[in-house]
Amino acid sequence: MPKQTILVIEDEEKLRRVVGLHLAAAGYDVKAVGTAEEGFKLAGDAGLILTDLKLPGMDGLELLEKLKGQNSHTPVVVMSAFGTVENAVEAMKRGAVDFLPKPFSLDHLSVVVEKALDVRQLRDENRDLREALGQRYQFENIVGHSPEMQEIFATVTRVAPTRATVLLAGESGVGKDMIARAIHEHSPRKGRPFVKINCTAIPENLMESELFGYEKGAFTGANISKPGKFEQADTGTVFLDEIGDVPASIQVKLLRILQEREFERLGSNKTQHTDVRVIAATNVDLRAALEQGTFREDLYYRLNVVPMNIPPLRERKDDIPYLVEHFAKKYGGEISEGALERLMSYHWPGNVRELENVVERSVLLARGPRVEAEDIKIETGIGRARHAVSTDAFLPEGMTLDQYEQSIIREALKRADGNKSQAARLLGLTRNALRYRLAQMGIE
User: Fold this and answer.
1) Which carries the bigger pLDDT value, residue 192 or residue 90?
2) What CATH number is given for 393-441 in this structure?
3) Which of 51, 127, 297, 307 could potentially form a cystine with 9 if both were Cys, beta carbons 3.0 to 4.6 Å apart?
4) Which of 250, 244, 239, 243 is nearest to 206 (CA)?
């Protein structure tokens, strides 16, 4: 591992020499100068800057301002014999990571230097993670060469810089979460929190406390106060996945967030404000939910400011070869032409998510150096069943449409062992939509 370079800026020659020798003996590469002007020229190569506050010409605070103007990520420790609280506070305001009052022991110096370098390492790691995350959601890393996906990317480019609410529609597995993240990463909120909320995964009785937080004593077991998702996402983006599953009582509170940017924690009367951008996604037809009375019309129009419909994979088959190549490379495999032809012939009810799953499994279980057609294993039973139900335009003899629908719902409940959430997923409905239909059928 290369040595860390520490730049020492100190006009007192004796102290500059002592500090330099001590740090060099500790294994650091030390550069020592007597003025801030000289130090500024060398700052780009330094892993840490140790500067006196009072210097001839430019002083330490002015140096901090100049480094800040260059967007320097190098941590700065300020030394000064004028060890007042005001000096320390001012140095911290200008960007210093620590303040070292003179006189100081060499042991104290070592502790401060190690701490400052730890801060540098954490900053670098966090910045690298953010950059890697941002790169992942660049358009070139979201595979979509078809005209339909290019239009989606164009819309993202136009809407991302704004704070407009976006409603993403499309079947499960088409990549709505990727598009939501791409909008966030191309917006001014990049680097701020991105909080994803899967509305289907949160039990109805816990949804309010999860979204808006709660105060200590708000309910049994609330031993401490806890912020909700909207608080955690302040100045960032909230992604409400499967918005169609939100119960009516929570829909009212979401409408208030969108209109007023305010809410109350569960068990509190104190109104809190939040600055969040909302992106919502659904895999069901919310207009149908409006007609059924399971989704609020005013909330729908607040969410549907910028609608984006992500097409299913079967409607953009031109993307399949590119996706297959991308996933094969990701999992370290190679796909033959025969295997690709088989993948192209399938209708992919699970969309991109299912395609990735099949490619990963095929690469892992392939019997040769590359994936052949016989290595492709697809669970076609589920897909055929869904396809048959969706394309069968004829009713069984002697059965009305309502009776046929009720028979399908009862069969779904039977297969789900009475679990309404699972039955709703089998039917491609939200829980609220299924409840509405069950009430019409007279089923509790």
Assistant:
1) 192
2) 1.10.10.60
3) 51
4) 250
What 3-state DSSP class applies to 321? helix
- Cα dist from 442 to 24, 156, 438, whole Å: 82, 44, 6
Report how far residue 444's alpha carbon sits from residue 423's, in angstroms, rounded to the nearest whole number.
14
- Is the domain 5-133 a CATH 3.40.50.2300 member? yes
Q: Are 74 and 48 in contact (CB under 8 A)?
A: yes
- How crowded is residue 188: how many other Cβ atoms within 10 Å of its Cβ? 12
| Rounded Cα distance, 168 and 174, in Å | 11
**What's the pLDDT tens digit per position in 259-295?**
999 999 999 999 999 999 999 999 888 888 888 888 9
Task: State the Cα–Cα distance between residues 142 and 83, nearest whole angstrom.
Answer: 54
Is residue 79 a contact partner of residue 51, using CB atoms and an 8 Å limit? yes
State the Cα–Cα distance between residues 372 and 362, nearest whole angstrom.
9
Q: Does residue 315 or residue 439 have the better pLDDT?
A: 315
Top-tier CATH class for 313-383: mainly alpha
- pLDDT band for position 144 (cuts 50, 70, 90): confident
Tokens of 418: 């009475």
The CATH 1.10.10.60 portion of the chain extends over: 393-441
Tens of pLDDT, residue by residue over 147-157, are 888 899 889 99
Give the angle subtended at the CA of 134 by the CAs of 129 and 140, to the nearest 5°.
135
Q: Does 166 have pLDDT greater than 70?
A: yes
Q: Whole-angstrom Cα distance, residue 2 to residue 243?
A: 51
Task: At 191, list the tokens.
Answer: 């680097």
Sign of the four-CA dihedral 409, 412, 418, 422: negative
pLDDT attached to residue 134:
45
Q: Does domain 146-309 have CATH number 3.30.70.3460?
A: no
Strands 98-101 and 166-169, sheet pairing: unpaired
Amino acid at 2: P
- Residue intervals of the chain classified under CATH 3.40.50.300 are 146-309
Instruction: Write down the pTM of the prediction.
Output: 0.59
What confidence category does residue 83 fall into, taking pLDDT thresholds of 50, 70 and 90? low
Distances (CA, A) of 350 to 309, 315, 341, 375: 16, 13, 18, 19
Integer Rg of the chain from CA = 30
Where, residue-wise, is CATH 1.10.8.60 in the chain? 313-383
